[in-house]
């Protein structure tokens, strides 16, 4: 009888483990959002599109950025990680003028949204950003 209980316990444990006890959300997919800087009466909005893939806690993707109402875009390879609900992404790319663009996004996952701060060597200080998963 003890042997049967042991076998059942092992089988149940295997089934639970195999079919996803992981609480890690899947961030893979398309994300869109904005980073908005407000200085006095001036509001500057950066449009963000992110194609993200996830392998366990590791994140990789392409971030496309453009100023609102400006067709020029910059695309940057990003890498990062997911730790609990904390999301961190970093990237660097050369710009059209030859200077490097470095970005960081640090935020919290809240359902299908990442809400946090966008910082870059092209911004004076971190600004609010929000991305929403599209698929």
The tally of beta strands, per DSSP, is 8
Give me the Rg, rounded: 20 Å
Number of helices: 1
Strand order of the largest sheet: 1-2-3-4-5-6-7-8
Largest sheet: 8 strands, antiparallel, barrel
Overall form: globular
Distance between the termini: 49 Å
Query: Structural class of the helices, strands and pairings?
Result: mainly beta
The whole-number mean of residue pLDDT values reads 84
Looking at this protein, list some descriptive labels.
135 residues, 13% helix, 59% strand
Describe what is shown at a glance.
The chain is mainly beta and 135 residues long. The chain is built from one helix and eight strands; from the N terminus they run H-E-E-E-E-E-E-E-E.
Task: Give a written overview of the molecule.
- The structure is a single chain.
- With 135 residues, the chain is mainly beta.
- The protein has one helix at 2-18; strands at 29-39, 42-55, 58-67, 74-83, 86-94, 100-110, 113-120, 127-133.
- It has an eight-stranded antiparallel barrel with strand order 1-2-3-4-5-6-7-8.
- β6 and β7 form a beta hairpin.
- It is globular.
- The model is unreliable at 14-20 (pLDDT under 50).
Reconstruct the topology from this structure.
Elements: H1 2-18, E1 29-39, E2 42-55, E3 58-67, E4 74-83, E5 86-94, E6 100-110, E7 113-120, E8 127-133
Antiparallel strand pairs: 1-2, 1-8, 2-3, 3-4, 4-5, 5-6, 6-7, 7-8
């Amino acid at each position: 009888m003890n042997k049967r209980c042991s076998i059942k316990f092992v089988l149940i444990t295997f089934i639970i483990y195999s079919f996803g006890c992981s609480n890690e959300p899947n961030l893979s997919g398309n994300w869109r959002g904005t980073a908005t800087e407000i200085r006095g009466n001036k509001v500057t909005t950066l449009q963000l599109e992110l194609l993200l893939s996830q392998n366990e806690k590791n994140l990789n993707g392409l971030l496309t950025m453009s100023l609102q109402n400006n067709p020029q875009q910059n695309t940057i390879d990003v890498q990062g990680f997911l730790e609990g609900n904390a999301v961190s992404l970093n990237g660097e790319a050369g710009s059209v003028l030859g200077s490097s663009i470095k970005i960081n996004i640090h935020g919290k996952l809240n359902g299908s949204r990442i809400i946090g701060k966008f910082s870059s060597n092209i911004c004076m200080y971190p600004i609010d950003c929000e991305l929403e998963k599209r698929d």
